[in-house]
């Protein structure tokens, strides 16, 4: 298997498979066919088989997929078992919402600390270590970290991203709504633009109204 040959669309569907397999487990289902899984996800059985064949295939024709085994294999592909670490940069409204509501652990990631200007300990609570942004490089030198979550103002995004890369961060989850520039190819950036999803929804609504 060559990861560079696998399309981004296939990779984007893997977390969806995980979610639906978790629902099947909660329902007590132990085995599922590609047709049954496809109906749940609004995908064809052929599409599901094609996706899984990108990774060598997992099921047996006429036998279906063992839900637990399939979930385990997909989780391994997504790196959920590697116990990655993360920090969050920016403890404003969005940063606090992510800290308090997002289940990092369910994705195999441990959120270790938050950074901002000044002391926002009261705002984020005692469950997470808080540091002033001036301590960033010292912290990362003593606590090597895989991922940085950017939830700071857009005008500070590029400069902060380069600080993080220089301090050893290898992945950036970017909520700043700007495209980061000049990031080395060996650093993975995942951009989250809430407006993209809403505008896509608006497009489909407008299309139905014509």
Task: Return the average pLDDT rounded to an integer.
Answer: 90
Distance between the termini: 45 Å
Low-confidence stretches: none
CATH superfamily of the largest domain: NAD(P)-binding Rossmann-like Domain
Q: Strand content of the residues, in percent?
A: 15-25%
Assign the CATH class of the largest domain: Alpha Beta
| Structural class by secondary-structure content | alpha/beta
Count of discrete domains: 2
- The count of helical stretches stands at 9
Count every beta strand, where a strand is a DSSP E run of 2 or more residues.
8
Characterise the protein shown here.
There is one protein chain. With 210 residues, the protein is of the alpha/beta class. The protein folds into 2 domains: 3-76, Arc Repressor Mutant, subunit A (Orthogonal Bundle); 84-195, 3-Layer(aba) Sandwich (Rossmann fold), CATH 3.40.50. Helix content is 44%, strand content 16%. The chain contains 9 helices and 8 strands. It has a 6-stranded parallel β-sheet, covered by helices on one side. α5 links the parallel β3 (84-89) and β4. α2 crosses α3. The longest helix has 19 residues, at 8-26. It is globular. The chain starts with 7 loop residues before the first helix and ends with a helix. The model has no long low-confidence stretch (mean pLDDT 90).
Can you describe this structure in just a few lines?
This protein has 210 residues and is α/β, with parallel strands linked by helices. 44% of the residues lie in helices and 16% in strands.
